[in-house]
Structures are given as structure tokens and as C-alpha cells.
Design brief:
By secondary structure, this protein is of the alpha+beta class. The protein has one domain: 3-Layer(aba) Sandwich (Cytidine Deaminase, domain 2), CATH 3.40.140.10. Strands 2-1-3-4-5 form a 5-stranded mixed sheet, sandwiched between helices. Strand 4 and strand 5 form a beta hairpin. The radius of gyration is 17 Å and the shape is globular.
């Protein structure tokens, strides 16, 4: 009986970090998150396309990495819970901060935003990962923190 060679025909999953000058940033408040968000979001399309970004933290609330989950249209974007949780596990994150923009300029969360946040909180909890906050940013009106408003 011949032994099959699966290693050569089956894809291997690997995790790759970008190398370079890496600095961890301590997150202490929603205003810290807003400052980071305004750098991560594409300022040229903030009022045109909704984007969703996850920020991953270690046990000291220092940043590990960020991940652009999706880029959508004017009124929404797809948020795949599995991608967010998988990336948290891959980076050994202890907590996550969620961020997205509202091209409309209204930073008040929709019911869909609140429901998706609750879904992400529940999924993360299964792996002992905490969702610290979900902030919604706009170009002119600042931000809305779900944690600051006790929605998380």
C-alpha cells in the first residue's frame, strides 16, 4: 500500500506580521481610540464608503494590530464575525475594539450597529476575549462610543 504525500498537495495556513518599526499604543479611553481611528480610516473616502476596522489589544490594553474587516458602500458594509474572531485568536488578543464610520455624518448607531455589536460581544466571550468598545466616527461630528454610553 502506497503512502500518500498530503503535505505537498494540501495548503498550509500561516500567519504573517508586517515587519518594521512597531510601536504599541496604550488605549485608556474612547478618545484614544478616536485618535487612532482617524489615522486608520481613509480620510478621502470617509464620507463616501463605510468601512469597518477591528483593533486588537493585549492584556495591558496595548495595541497588537489592526485589521480592515471590510469596505462597503454609502449605507453599509459587510461585517463577518468569523473574520474578526479568527484574527483575534491569530494575534493572541485579549480584547478587541471595533470601529466603523458613517458616511452620512450622523454618528448615532443604528439598530443594526447595536445588534451586530452584541453578536460580536457574544462570539468573543466564547473565547474569553472582551470587546472593549465600538466607536462610530464621522468626518465632522466626532465619534460615538458604545462603551461610553453603556451599550456594551
Amino acid at each position: 500500500m502506497a503512502v500518500k504525500k498530503y503535505k505537498s498537495i494540501m495548503p498550509e495556513v500561516t500567519l504573517k506580521y508586517r515587519k518594521g518599526n512597531v510601536k504599541k499604543v496604550k488605549i485608556s479611553s474612547s478618545s484614544d481610540v478616536y485618535e487612532i481611528a482617524m489615522e486608520l480610516f481613509n480620510q478621502d473616502t470617509l464620507e463616501i464608503n463605510e468601512e469597518f476596522i477591528a483593533l486588537y489589544l493585549n492584556a495591558s490594553n496595548n495595541t497588537i494590530a489592526w485589521f480592515k474587516v471590510s469596505k462597503g458602500g454609502i449605507t453599509g458594509t459587510v461585517v463577518d464575525v468569523r473574520h474578526i474572531i479568527k484574527t483575534a485568536l491569530d494575534t493572541n488578543a485579549v480584547s478587541i475594539i471595533l470601529m466603523h464610520n458613517h458616511p452620512s455624518g450622523n454618528c448615532t448607531p443604528s439598530q443594526n450597529d447595536i445588534n451586530r455589536t452584541r453578536e460580536l460581544v457574544a462570539a468573543a466571550k466564547l473565547f474569553n476575549i472582551r470587546v472593549h468598545d465600538h466607536i462610530i466616527v464621522t468626518d465632522d461630528n466626532g465619534y460615538f462610543s458604545m462603551s461610553d454610553k453603556d451599550l456594551i
